[in-house]
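Aim 2 progress update. The chain analyzed this quarter is reproduced below.
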Amino acid sequence: MKRSILTAIAASLLFTTAASAADLAARPYTKAPPPVVAVYDWTGFYIGGHLGGAWTNEQWINTANTTAFGDLSPGQGFSQRGSGVFGGGQIGYNWQVNNFVLGLEGTISGMGNKGTVVNTVFGAGLDDVFSWRTDWMATVVGRAGVAFNNNLFYVKGGYAGVNNKLSVSDTVGATGSGSQTTWHNGWTVGAGWEYGITRNWIVGVEYDYAAFQTKSYQLAGAAAPAVYTFDVKPKDIQSVVARLSYKFGGPVVAKY
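Predicted C-alpha cells:
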C-alpha cells in the first residue's frame, strides 16, 4: 500500500513538471523594436561665411574722345583678366520636402580683382595708364537641391550686382586723368555641395559664374566739358569658395 502511494506521488510530480515545461515553451516571443535611424533635417534659417578666390574679365572700349590727353579713339580699347581673394557672408533659409530642398539666399562678398594696362598700342603718346578693379559683389538667388541625409547637392541662380571702377592717367605731354565707379547689374548661376557635420554646423564648397551689363564711363576728369568716354563691362566673374554656416533649430528627425 505504501509503495502504491509513493508511486502515485512520483507520477504526479512527473506530470506536473512536464506540464510546466510545456507552458514555458508555449510563451509568445517578444520581437525587439526596430532600430531608430537619425535623419538630417535641412529646414531652417542659416547664416555663415565663405572664402576662396575669384577671377574677373574686364573690358573697356572708347566711344568718344575730345580731350588733349586721351590717346584712344572710338572703337579702340582693352580687356584684361585679374584675380584675387574672394570672401564674405551668406544668409538664407531652406525648406526640405522628402529628399528635395528649396531655398533662398543672399550674399555679400569683397574681392581683390584688379589690373593695370599701359597703352602701347593706340595713339601718338602711348602713355595712357588704365587701372581697374572690382571690389565687392552682392547676390540674391534661389537654390534647389537633393539631400541624402547629411549631404546636400544643389544648384542656384538669380540676381548679381558688382561695384566696378576704371581710371586713366596721362603724365607725359598733354596730361590729364579721370576715374569713375559704377554699379553693374547682372545674373549668376552656380552649384555646390554641403555637409551637415552637426544639427547646426554646415560646411561646403561652391562654384559660381556671374555676368554683368555694360555701362558708360566718363574719364575726362578736369578736362570736362571735353569727353573721354568708354563702354565698360566686367564681362564675367567666376569664383570658387569654401563655406561654413550655422543653421538655427532643425532637430534631428527620428525615422523607423
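The domain at 38-255 is CATH 2.40.160.20 (Porin). The chain has one domain: 38-255. These observations will guide the mutagenesis experiments scheduled for the next reporting period.
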